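Reopening this ticket.

The earlier resolution said the output was attached, but the attachment link was broken on my side. Pasting everything inline this time so it's all in one place.
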Amino acid sequence: MHKLLSIFFLLMTLPTIASESINTLTIEKLLANNFKIMTAQQIRDQLQGRTLLIKDLDANSQYELVFTHDNSKTLTKTIEDDPGTLTNTEYQARAQLLTGPGTYSIKDNKVISSDGLREYEIKLYQKNNIIFGARNIDSGRVSFEIKIK
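Inline output:
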């Protein structure tokens, strides 16, 4: 009976554990799959002035973002965070993905932005029409996917 209860408990907790896990996509995996870092000129040409759909890979939320030509940004959250992130301590401890002051700059193949507390650099990796972003404060993890609307 004790063994049966243990198995039941394990099966009941598996969905909770799975929903609380953080994504495991890394820069190393992107490079191994032939993704290339976008140059500053590619970022300007392909992303500036367009409406971008940004998917937060950790929270499964989505934003619409526009990097304007005057180095400001507008941001609207269109899909809320997955409820599992509320109890995920790793997710809760990270810097917010795209919030903070509404300015940015593009320098040396990076987008430089802020969460209101610290400045961070975002490198974008592209293969065909697929673009992923990784911040220098996330220890090599890829934080988001970008699609052009």
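Reporter confirms the inline version is readable. The chain is about 25% helix and 35% strand. The beta strands are 36-37, 51-56, 62-67, 73-79, 105-107, 110-114, 119-127, 130-135, 144-148.
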